[in-house]
Design brief:
The complex is a heterodimer. Chain A is mostly helical. Chain A is about 80% helix and about 0% strand. Classes of the chains: A mainly alpha, B mainly alpha.
Amino acid sequence: MIAFVIRRLLQAVLVMLAVGFVAFSLFAYVGDPVAIMLGQDFTQEARDRLIRELGLDQPFVVQYFRFVLAAAQGEFGISYRLARPVTDLLVERLPATLELSLCAAAIALFVGVPLGVYTGLKRDTWGSRFLLTVSLVGVSLPTFLIGILLILVFSVMLGWLPSFGRGTVVQLGWWSTGFLTGSGLRALILPSITLALFQLTLIMRLVRSEMLEVLRTDYIKFARARGLRNRAVNFGHALKNTLVPVITITGLQLGGIIAFAIVTETVFQWPGMGFLFIQSVQAADIPVMSAYLVMIAFFFVVINLVVDLLYYAVDPRLRIDKGAAGGHGH
Amino acid sequence: MDLVRRALDSDIYWSFKRSPVVVTAAIVTILVFAGAIFAPWIAPQNPFDLRQLNLMDASLPPVWSAEGTSQYPLGTDTQGRDVLSTILFGSRISLLVGFLSVIFAMFLGVSLGLIAGYMGGTVDAVIMRIADVQLSFPAILIALLIDGVARVVIPRELHHEIAIYVLILAIGFSGWVQYARTVRGSCLVEKSKEYVQAARVIGRHPIAIMAQHVLPNVMGPVLVIATIHLALAIITEATLSFLGVGVPPTEPSLGTLIRIGNNYLFSGEWWITVFPGLALVIMVLAVNLLGDWLRDALNPKLR
């Protein structure tokens, strides 16, 4: 177990160093930060001094090492476009993205799992056929189009819900939340449904296929033969055993949600990190791009790590396999 | 030839004929492809030829509403362009980018998968670790990043001209992993078979063995992945164009059309957005249905 954790941790650090390398290469080779900082008129002397001050005359390895040290302390330089520290910009927008992502994940999970169980148990009813067809349409609908259609119906035609922004937010220290006001909650509805829909269909299909698989196994047949009630078999035995892959995929999808938030935030002009990232890509704002890259990579690595550890903790077979394999050697 | 014969094998053809949904999807796919390919000849108007545009006809609604005319069946946009024609021309760009990026991803993925599977050892480990890392990030993020970097490296004037190729490379590069993993898996199985050993014994070059002997035997699943990937590539292209980092507005794809139309959603001109969106969904859904069917039909486990 400890060896496994250490190996996974080392792997995570390696991935982060690799992503950091890409981000640093962006900094070092794309665009000319010195020219940008000096502006129009400058002397060669001023240029040399600035290069020395910024440490750009140092060897590549030294510069990379300093970049990693600074990044580890949350220091990513200054945005070319907005002339403010990148870290401040990202921290300001972090709550908006996280609240949106959490809402979407909750919707996807609490709607997707029951629908998956239903379509798995009652596979030949009209209801499940309908749901499966709808889910295929859902997979074929790009996220941004779902957003546009929801805006068209609920904002333009019916005028029920706002189509952009977060509504009124309340500051709790550095965290700004939209959960505490009516307009904040209303503003959250359309974006979080947009973001959730794709993951919802994915989870539904996954739970369904896992349920079908588990219901075929011998221990379910045995449980039925013992005369247990359907409820106990379906939920106590079957659903419980489908949860391991569901946890894995949901965990991994959480990263996907944060990434797809880029699209949703652009459609709804949601003031989160994804919207900031798109604006930075359009304006070639390298510091923000590379900081966002490092941060998203960090989220992904942490999520993958937690999911792996959870997997190990939840599924006893993984541990027994190791023991059995060791036993063979003797 | 063997592949063509296998695809027309009665078993698969029978499962094709049996499902009306799949037959419909196939017909729709053919119609959409034909519409895109022959757009310059069948479109009522060339929407990018300024001489054919008439600003007096701007913002006309579709034919079935009161102010619509039969000259513009799906209405016109704010510059007087026929929406049906822009959709036909837009599908052309969307399909072109989709196909080329799938071919690029397939080429890259199959080559790397073959090399990894056939060589084994360190080469295999390095390629597959890179694949693992890339797989843990969503494709759209990788495509966005490549596109964003290209935007900085390439001068602005030049960027408009080659934006479409950058996009193809970005989308293709974000999708090679699936191919590589599948091909590597099949390659590991094929490698130990006698025909490969025989080829090795008579002294053929490893590249020749990979390309001429192993490759034809691992291509089956690759075609299934390619079909499903085509739908994904079209969506990715549309998303990037919608975000404003895809093809330039001078050559609008369906995604660009939706982006442009989105600005007029609130002034009531819904048709400028909704019809290109509908075209995109129909295209992707038809390809997805075909891919799903192909996967099931070629999978012996489900027979």
